[in-house]
C-alpha cells in the first residue's frame, strides 16, 4: 500500500484530540470512571468462568434465618431473640477453638458492653457476665479477631482479650458497588482516663476536639472540660507520681494502624509481620514480609485502596461453609460429652463469622462486580485469598494509560488517514475489538486491569470520527473543485476515477502525454459565405432595420449551431476514449491523454479517438447532405415570407495533428476568474503544427506517437503510412510524420 503524505492540518487535529482525551482523563470525571468500572465488572464476571488457584483453608460461618430460629425456639438449650447476648458468640468461639480453627474473625462490631444481657451459669454453678464469658473464650482461644469501623471501636475488655483488631468498613463506589477496600485505617486509641471521662459525660469519642496544647471535651450544658498538654503533647496524670513526686506523664491518645480484616487473616496464615509493613503510598505499594523470605506486595492507590479479586463466591466448593447453629449444637453436644457425633470441619481453617440473613437488622448485603445483591462479608475471604496466593488486581497506572491512549490514537489516525473511509472504519473497529479482547484476556490470565474507556471510546473513537469528519468536509470540498474543473472536459468514467484517486496533482507537474489538435476545415469560408449572403439579401430587398437585424441574428445563430455541432462531435469522441478536453480555440478542439488520470496507452487511445472523430464527421456530413432536400422546401417558404434563404448545409472536414511527449500539466488561472486545466510546452506546439499540415480529412501523427503505437497497439501501427518529413514553425529540424488511415476500419 502506497502511503499518503500527512498534511499539517490533520496531524494537528489528531494531536489535539489526544491532548484533549488525556486532559479529560486527568479530570477523573465520575461519569467516565463509572463507565470504566462497568468494564471492570464485566471482566470480573468473565473471569469466574475460568477457574483460578485459590486458598483452600478459608471458611465461612454464617448467621442465617435458620440460626435465628434455632436460638429463638430453645433448640440449643437457651432461648434468645434477634439480638443475641455475647455468650452465644462466646460458645461459637469455644466450639471453633475445640475444632482447631487457626483464626476466628468476626464481621460484627461489638462496640459496647451490654450489662443488660443475662449472665452465664458456669459448670461450678457460679454466674458470669455475658461479656466476660465472651472475653474469656477469646482469651482462651488466643486467635480471635474482633472488628472495628470508623467511629466504632470495641471496649477494652474485648480488645485486651482478642488477638488482633481488623477493619471491616465498607466503602462503595459512587454507583453503589463494592469493588475495593482500604488496606488499613488509622484508629485513635484514647487514654483510659479520657475515655472514662467521655463515657461519664455521655460523649462519643469522636466528639473530642484536639488542639495543639489542649484536649477539649464539650459537655451537654455548653461547658467544656479541658485537658492541658505540654510541649511534647503529653498530659499530667495526677493520680500517679514519679520518684521525684511530680505527676506522671502520658499521651492522651495513640494513633494505631488497623489493617483490613482479610489482610489480618492472611497475615495469620503466612505469619506476616504487620507491625513492620513497608507502606509506600506515593509509589502505590504496601510490602508485607514474613519468615522464609515470604513477601507480599499489595498494589494500592494514593489513599491506600486496592481492588478486591472476587475469585471465591459464597458457593465456591473451595470455601468451607456452615450455619452458626450447627456449631452451637455441636458445642452443646461437646459439653454433654456426646463425642461420637462431633466433627472438626474447621480444623486449621481461617474462619470468618458474618451475616447471611435477609430482611432484618443483621442483613449485610449489597452489590459487587459479580452480583447486584450478594453477601458483602465475602470481601474478607477474597482479600485474604489475594494475600495468601499473592494474586492482586493491578490497575494500569496513569502513565501507562496515557501511553496506550497515544499509541492507539496514533494508530487510529494512521489507519483513518491512509485508508478509504469504509476500510478505515472497518480497520479501526477490528483494532478496537482486538484491544477489548486483549483487555479481557489479560485480566482473566493475570488480573491486570487495562483501561478500556479512554483508549477505545476516547482516543480511538473520537480520533476516528474527527479525522473522518475532516476528510468528509475537506475532501468533499476538493471533490466539488475537481467536478467544477473536469465535469465537462472528461468522460463520466474518468471523472469517477479522479474522484476516487487517493492523490490528485493539479498544481502543475511534468508528465508524458499525447496531445490532440483537430480543426474543422471550411468553417471560416462557410461563415464568410453566410454573412455575405445575408448582407446581399438585405441590400437587394431593402429590408427595414428591425427585420435586417433579425436576419443577421438568425444567420449568426445557425453559424454557431453548425460549429457547435462539429465541435461536439469531436468532443464526444475524445471523451469516449478517456481524453481530457483542454479548450476550444475557435473552430479547433484541443485535448490530451495521460492526465489527470494516468493512462498507460495514452497514445493509442488518442489515435483511436481521432479515427472515431473522422468517422463521426463523415457520418454527420452524410446526414447533412440528406437534410439539404428538406432545406430547399424550407427556403421557398422563407422567400415567400420575405426572409433570406438558408444556404445549403455544407460538408465540413477535419484535420488532426497528434504528438506525444513530456509537457507541463496543471491548473492555469485563478479561482477568482477563469481556471483551466491545460497542458503546454514544446511538444504541445508540435502537435498544433502537425494539425496545420494535416489538410482536410487526414490524421497526422509524429514519430514519437508512432513509436508508442508500436508498443501499445502494433496492429494499428502497421496501418500507418510514413510521409515525407516536414519542417514546421518553431522546430529547427524536419519532423518525421505518419498518416493514420481511417476510411477502412483498422484492425483492433
Walk me through the structure.
This protein has 748 residues and is α+β, with helices and mostly antiparallel strands. Helix content is 43%, strand content 21%. Helix 4 (86-99) runs parallel beside helix 5 (130-141), helix 8 (261-270) packs parallel to helix 10 (378-389) and helix 15 (523-541) packs antiparallel against helix 16 (545-576). The protein is rod-shaped, with a radius of gyration of 50 Å.
Strand content: 15-25%
Mean pLDDT: 88
Secondary-structure-based class equals alpha+beta
Characterize the main sheet: 8 strands, mixed
Shape annotation: rod-shaped
Distance N terminus to C terminus? 35 Å
Percent of residues in helices: 40-55%
Topology of helices and strands:
Blueprint: H1 8-27, H2 30-47, E1 58-63, H3 65-72, H4 86-99, E2 103-106, E3 120-121, E4 127-128, H5 130-141, E5 144-148, H6 156-159, E6 164-167, E7 180-182, E8 184-190, H7 192-200, E9 209-210, E10 214-218, E11 224-228, E12 235-241, E13 247-250, E14 253-259, H8 261-270, E15 278-280, E16 285-289, E17 295-299, E18 305-307, E19 320-323, H9 324-335, E20 350-355, E21 365-366, E22 374-375, H10 378-389, E23 394-395, H11 398-418, H12 421-446, E24 448-449, H13 453-486, H14 492-499, E25 509-521, H15 523-541, H16 545-576, E26 580-585, E27 588-593, H17 602-640, E28 653-669, E29 675-680, H18 682-692, E30 698-702, H19 703-712, H20 714-717, E31 721-722, E32 737-739
Amino acid at each position: 500500500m502506497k502511503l499518503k503524505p500527512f498534511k499539517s492540518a490533520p496531524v494537528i487535529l489528531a494531536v489535539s484530540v489526544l491532548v484533549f482525551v488525556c486532559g479529560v482523563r486527568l479530570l477523573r470525571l465520575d461519569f467516565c470512571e463509572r463507565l470504566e468500572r462497568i468494564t471492570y465488572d464485566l471482566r470480573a464476571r468473565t473471569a469466574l468462568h475460568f477457574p483460578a488457584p485459590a486458598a483452600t483453608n478459608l471458611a465461612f460461618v454464617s448467621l442465617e434465618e435458620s440460626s435465628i430460629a434455632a436460638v429463638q425456639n430453645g433448640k440449643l438449650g437457651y432461648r434468645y431473640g434477634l439480638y443475641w447476648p455475647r455468650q452465644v458468640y462466646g460458645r461459637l468461639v469455644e466450639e471453633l477453638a475445640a475444632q482447631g480453627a487457626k483464626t476466628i474473625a468476626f464481621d460484627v462490631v461489638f462496640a459496647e458492653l451490654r450489662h443488660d444481657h443475662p449472665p452465664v451459669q458456669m459448670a461450678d454453678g457460679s454466674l458470669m457476665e455475658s461479656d466476660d464469658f465472651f472475653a474469656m473464650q477469646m482469651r482462651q482461644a488466643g486467635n480471635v479477631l474482633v472488628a472495628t469501623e470508623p467511629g466504632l471501636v470495641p471496649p477494652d475488655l474485648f480488645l485486651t482479650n482478642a488477638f488482633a483488631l481488623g477493619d471491616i468498613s465498607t466503602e462503595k463506589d459512587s454507583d453503589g458497588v463494592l469493588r475495593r477496600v482500604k488496606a488499613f485505617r488509622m484508629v485513635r486509641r484514647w487514654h483510659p482516663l479520657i475515655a472514662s471521662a467521655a463515657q461519664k459525660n455521655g460523649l462519643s469519642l469522636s466528639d473530642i476536639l484536639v488542639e495543639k496544647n489542649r484536649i477539649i471535651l464539650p459537655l451537654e450544658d455548653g461547658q467544656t472540660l479541658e485537658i492541658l498538654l505540654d510541649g511534647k503533647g503529653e498530659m499530667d496524670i495526677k493520680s500517679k507520681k514519679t520518684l521525684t513526686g511530680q505527676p506522671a506523664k502520658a499521651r492522651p491518645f495513640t494513633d494505631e494502624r488497623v489493617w483490613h480484616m482479610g489482610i489480618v487473616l492472611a497475615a495469620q496464615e503466612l505469619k506476616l509481620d504487620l507491625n513492620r509493613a513497608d507502606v509506600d503510598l506515593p509509589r502505590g505499594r504496601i510490602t508485607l514480609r514474613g519468615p522464609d523470605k515470604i513477601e507480599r506486595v499489595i498494589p494500592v492507590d494514593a489513599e491506600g485502596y486496592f481492588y478486591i479479586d472476587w475469585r471465591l463466591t459464597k458457593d465456591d466448593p473451595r470455601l468451607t461453609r456452615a450455619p452458626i447453629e450447627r456449631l452451637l449444637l455441636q458445642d452443646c453436644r461437646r459439653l454433654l460429652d456426646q463425642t461420637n457425633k462431633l466433627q472438626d470441619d474447621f480444623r486449621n481453617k481461617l474462619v470468618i463469622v458474618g451475616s447471611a440473613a435477609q430482611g432484618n437488622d443483621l442483613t449485610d448485603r449489597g452489590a459487587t462486580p459479580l452480583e447486584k445483591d450478594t453477601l458483602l462479608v465475602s470481601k474478607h475471604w477474597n482479600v485474604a485469598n489475594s494475600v495468601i496466593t499473592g494474586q492482586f488486581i493491578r490497575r494500569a497506572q496513569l502513565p501507562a494509560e496515557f501511553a496506550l491512549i497515544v499509541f492507539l490514537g496514533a494508530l487510529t489516525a494512521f489507519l483513518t488517514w491512509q485508508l478509504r473511509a469504509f476500510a478505515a472504519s472497518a480497520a479501526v473497529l477490528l483494532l478496537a475489538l482486538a484491544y477489548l479482547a486483549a483487555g479481557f484476556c489479560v485480566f482473566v490470565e493475570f488480573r491486570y486491569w487495562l483501561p478500556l474507556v479512554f483508549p477505545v471510546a476516547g482516543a480511538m473513537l473520537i480520533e476516528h470520527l474527527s479525522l473522518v469528519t475532516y476528510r468528509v468536509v475537506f475532501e468533499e470540498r476538493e471533490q466539488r473543485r475537481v467536478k467544477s474543473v473536469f465535469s465537462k472536459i472528461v468522460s463520466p468514467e474518468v471523472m469517477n476515477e479522479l474522484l476516487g484517486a487517493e492523490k490528485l496533482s493539479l498544481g502543475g507537474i511534468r508528465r508524458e502525454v499525447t496531445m490532440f489538435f483537430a480543426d474543422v476545415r471550411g468553417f471560416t469560408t462557410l461563415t464568410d459565405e453566410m454573412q455575405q449572403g445575408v448582407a446581399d439579401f438585405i441590400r437587394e430587398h431593402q429590408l427595414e432595420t428591425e427585420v435586417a437585424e433579425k436576419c443577421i441574428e438568425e444567420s449568426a445563430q445557425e453559424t454557431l449551431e453548425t460549429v457547435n455541432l462539429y465541435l461536439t462531435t469531436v468532443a464526444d469522441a475524445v471523451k469516449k476514449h478517456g481524453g481530457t478536453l483542454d479548450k476550444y480555440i475557435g473552430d479547433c478542439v484541443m485535448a490530451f491523454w495521460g492526465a489527470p488520470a494516468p493512462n498507460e496507452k495514452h497514445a493509442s487511445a488518442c489515435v483511436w479517438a481521432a479515427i472515431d472523430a473522422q468517422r463521426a464527421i463523415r457520418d454527420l456530413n452524410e446526414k447533412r447532405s440528406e437534410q439539404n432536400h428538406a432545406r430547399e422546401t424550407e427556403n421557398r417558404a422563407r422567400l415567400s415570407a420575405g426572409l433570406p434563404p438558408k444556404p445549403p448545409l455544407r460538408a465540413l472536414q477535419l484535420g488532426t495533428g497528434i504528438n506525444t511527449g513530456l509537457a507541463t500539466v496543471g491548473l492555469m488561472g485563478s479561482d477568482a476568474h477563469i481556471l483551466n486545466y491545460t497542458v503546454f510546452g514544446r511538444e504541445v506546439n508540435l502537435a498544433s503544427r502537425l494539425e496545420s499540415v494535416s489538410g482536410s480529412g487526414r490524421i497526422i501523427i509524429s514519430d514519437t506517437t508512432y513509436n508508442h503505437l508500436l508498443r501499445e497497439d502494433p496492429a494499428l501501427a502497421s496501418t500507418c503510412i510514413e510521409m515525407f518529413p516536414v519542417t514546421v514553425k518553431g522546430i529547427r529540424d524536419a519532423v518525421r510524420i505518419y498518416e493514420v488511415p481511417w476510411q477502412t476500419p483498422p484492425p483492433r
